[in-house]
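Blinded run. Sample ID left blank on purpose so nobody reads anything into the name before looking at the predicted structure. Input follows.
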Amino acid sequence: MDTNLAVLLQLQFLEQRIKQLHTQLAAGPAKQAVMERELAPAREELRQRQATIEANQSERQQMEQQIQEFRQKISNFRSHSAEVKTNQEYRALLDEISYAEREIRQREDRILALMEQSEEAEKQALAASEALSAQEARMKEWLQAWEQEAAEVQGQQEQLHAQREQLRVQVDSSLLNRYDRVAKLRGNALAELENETCGACRVRLRPQFLQELSNHPERVYFCEYCGRILYHQPAVEPPFTGDIELAHG
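Blinded prediction complete.
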């Protein structure tokens, strides 16, 4: 195999790994965004529970204030009862007192109902708060693991970038330019020749082309259909193998 092809094959492998690592790193912010969206309903539920408690407390304060006002009215009515001169005025005074007492009872009943509702709302708010805290704790744990592993992958990316630059300077400039153009267009610039077909586009190559390749294997050939650089077998062992797993869940 041509030396340039051997180097390009290593270069393509490195760039595939770099792309893979880039994809894995990009998955981190995406996963974090998903987790944030998953937290939104729990946060909204807790907000609603707390709003219910606040509204309950506000209404109870309002009821208690009105009770105090009616009690003050009753006290005023009774303090002026000695000044009443006719039975009609006295009955009217009693009616006012009776009305105020009914209003007080109604508000006291409402306060009791609100207290029962408040107790239930506080239980629901506590449950919502605990559920939210558990979700937030899981997200924090995931973020810590992600940050650690992302740092490791970024370190590997830096190593791969350095090795890629070392390989690029070993390739003939015109062939490297062709490699870059095809890689940008096709994703992969090299394709293995498999059973007289291009291993990438799967098109069977012309007999004359195959004969030329057989007669002059030292030359560099390009697929006549997809333009990729063709090779027979890897000349060297790839520099990296295996996948790098990150904490996605």
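Unblinding after everyone has recorded impressions. The two ends are 44 Å apart (CA to CA).
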